[in-house]
Amino acid sequence: MSKNKDIDARLISGRIDIGRVMDEIVKNTSEKGSGAIVVFMGVVKGVVDEHKVYSLVYNAYEPYASQKLWEIAEEELRDHNAFSAKIYHRIGELKPGEPTIYIFVSAKNRDKAFSVARKILERVKHEVPIFKLEKREDGNYWVIGDGKRIESMKSKKGNNKHRNATLQGI
Amino acid sequence: MGLVRIRLFSIFVEAVGASEIVVEKTGRIKISDIIEILENKFPMFHEVRKRVPLIILLNGEPVRDHKREVEDSSEIAILPPMSGD
Question: What is d(CA B6, CA A73) in angstroms, rounded to the nearest whole number?
């Protein structure tokens, strides 16, 4: 991935310093004519379907998840003449209130900055191989696509350990 | 004889009981053959498939044509619809 300072996109395990990233974007884009920076931050919900959420566990299919994040940032920046696009997606187990994703977009004006940030978010949701398991007081649920939830079989059966297997002679 | 790696994610890991399966391929094999094998070998996979759409990536690229042949050393990923953010 290139060293273009106007694009960044990756999976992260901890939080980021929003102010530092903002300062960097302002420094790099104000002279290009940037008039707006939009920051989107997703957070883990504390309640879903009236049930308390304990945590949300994210995992990703690497290296394809990181590659796709980068591709989305690069394409949206290029296609909409934005000045900067950065995406940081958390992985691991996150508690309610913790940030899940950060999207930064710098553009000529607010309309463009909002619309590019929105496009990036929708593409991340549908195109990046990232998966989440919601641990709640009423059981564990896999979140499939846009909000559909299917109860984990482990919720019902206790801990079956995953294993790797070999199927011979197919 | 070549090897094909099958990676499973999300609810499909539970359906199969493994996050990765290595298939020893003795002849020509299509993606649809691999899905059929998983359905026959793991009844839970068959059940989950009825409720969850299947997305297949072949070496990281989405594949819609399940008649596509799988080369030696390929990696097939079996995913539900993605749920980033």
Answer: 29
